[in-house]
Design a protein that fits this description.
By secondary structure, this protein is of the alpha/beta class. It has helices spanning 41-48, 80-91, 95-108, 124-136, 154-169; strands at 3-12, 15-25, 30-34, 56-61, 65-68, 142-146, 173-178, 189-194, 197-198.
Length: 199
Amino acid sequence: MILSSEHISKSFGGKKVLTDISFELHAGTITGIVGENGSGKSVLMEILVGVRKPNKGKINSNGRLGYCPQNALLFPHLTVQEHFKYFSTAYGIDVEHSNTVSEELLNHFNFDKYKHEIIKHLSGGTKQKLNLSIALLNQPDLLILDEPYNGFDWDTYQKFWNYTDQLKKQGCAILIVSHLISDKEKLDHIYKLENGILI
């Protein structure tokens, strides 16, 4: 077991957003959580990665975490390569290993030609490639993706699933959160978040 959510509840200003959420993520599986906009998906993700605290319940997790938020946390005046260096330092990854992994990601997702470009000059799709690549940089045991393929073209979408298939074979537990999951056959488990309840 890589992660367990035990009876998570969250309210804002007396309004209940999440109610008694419990589930587990296991090594080598891909799990999806679907729900309409405003259903509480992003709040749940932020609780799972430790950005928010629940009012009730607890999260247990093991291993290295990679998190791709819905809104990319990028610095507009830094280049793509500078982002890899910055986050490698934050993760405690040595320079040689960082260079190897970042080059692999740049090539796999086909944005190597942009590595010296500053972020504010990039398209939304390229920013999302970098957002995803940063989550993959420390080669996580648990990968949490919030609307990960927004802005992807078809080729990048296919490359995304190829990469997650590799991670799954390596034993990574992957959680994909989206308002729409079309490739349901690629997932081992799918939950629906509706009115704060996970079904």
